[in-house]
Write a structure and sequence with these properties.
Shape: globular
Number of helices: 9
Largest sheet: 9 strands, mixed
CATH architecture of one domain: 4-Layer Sandwich
Radius of gyration: 18 Å
CATH superfamily of one domain: Penicillin V Acylase, Chain A
Helix content: 25-40%
Structural class: alpha+beta
CATH class of one domain: Alpha Beta
Order of helices and strands: EHHHHEEEEEEHHEEEEHHHEEEEE
Number of strands: 16
Strand order of the largest sheet: 10-9-8-7-6-5-4-1-16
Distance between the termini: 12 Å
């Protein structure tokens, strides 16, 4: 992918993987194929291993996976990639928080390299349940909300370890497709293996929330923690912690969410300002969007400085928006 000079976001609605999904996958596939087969990623899992992993851990997702594979030609490599099983390592930034006063909402920043972000917000109904999600690998979700008001988001947990498990975006997609409540999502997060350390924040329409601290080879730790950045307890990867300013960003979030006089819009505004918002696009750690998910209304909002786009499950307008001028910050 070529580093962009402006950030484009495509808002699209397609109930099931179809013609638009197939065209978009074809456009993105050359980069994803190189990443999937990248040197140093280790032996890639075979088709039967990927199929068995889905059938064992995420069975309700299997029909949509098969359909997605079919619309892109039924290729072996594409099917293994779309399964999300044992992908190469991915390291992102991000901050996220659960607001519990007045009307509850989940808010998060997604920090990554502009040229590696799909820039797609997709409204689907793969299993009959309406979902709005910011996509990853087209089949996965970085964050999102479903028609029952369940909201989810992820950030990197700051650990180097890689193991046998699913990439977190496919797990989040599964949560959105199958769960209605925090309790149901917690059950899934306890049993589904993940390939890297991630912090997964879940909120439902009652305002209940939980953070799952996941890591390969061990059960998820579920705690009622309202804010996370890019570590899990103590720092285990000092260089990444320093680069991402994870402790500073966590401190700011903890202070602001504890401020009884701070109103909800001011708290959201914190995500559009330093240190929560980053402009390190050259370093692959720039804030690409701020998302606010409102479970009571089943509404998703996507924010950039001076730009706010609102979508709901029942009122989803398709458009392509230029939301951020990157200039030379993202490179040529």
């Amino acid at each position: 992918m070529v580093a962009p000079r402006e950030l484009l976001v495509r808002f699209r609605s397609e109930a099931r993987p179809g013609a638009w999904w197939a065209r978009t996958f074809e456009r993105l596939w050359p980069w994803y194929e190189r990443w999937w087969l990248s040197e140093g990623a280790g032996p890639r899992p075979g088709y039967l291993e990927c199929e068995k992993a889905l059938e064992t851990h995420l069975p309700e997702l299997v029909p949509a996976w098969r359909e997605a594979c079919e619309v892109v030609g039924g290729g072996d490599l594409e099917a293994r990639f779309l399964s999300g099983w044992r992908p190469p390592p991915v390291i992102v930034g991000c901050a996220q928080a659960a607001w519990g006063r007045d009307e509850p909402f989940l808010v998060r920043n997604y920090d990554f390299a502009p040229r590696l972000w799909e820039g797609i917000v997709l409204r689907t109904a793969w299993n009959g349940r309406g979902v709005i999600a910011s996509t990853d690998g087209l089949f996965g979700a970085l964050d999102g909300i479903n028609e029952d008001g369940l909201c989810v988001s992820l950030n990197f947990g700051g650990r180097r370890a890689v193991g046998a498990g699913f990439g977190a975006p496919v797990i989040l997609r599964y949560l959105l497709e199958t769960c209605r409540t925090v309790g149901e999502a917690a059950t899934v997060l306890r049993r589904v293996p993940t390939h890297m350390a991630y912090n997964v924040l879940v909120m439902d329409r009652t305002g209940d929330f939980v953070t799952a601290f996941t890591a390969p080879g061990q059960p998820a730790r579920l705690q009622r923690v309202p804010v996370t950045t890019n570590h899990q307890g103590r720092i285990t990867w000092a260089a990444h912690a320093e680069m991402s300013a994870t402790l500073e960003r966590e401190r700011v979030l903890v202070e602001r969410i504890a401020d009884a006089d701070l109103e909800s819009e001011a708290f959201i505004g914190s995500f559009l300002e330093p240190p929560l918002r980053s402009t390190d696009y050259d370093g692959g750690f720039g804030t690409l969007y701020t998302a606010v998910y409102r479970p009571v209304e089943q509404v998703a909002e996507f924010l950039w400085p001076g730009v706010r786009v609102r979508r709901s499950i029942d009122d989803f307008v398709e458009e392509t928006c230029s939301v951020l001028e990157l200039g030379t910050a993202a490179g040529a």
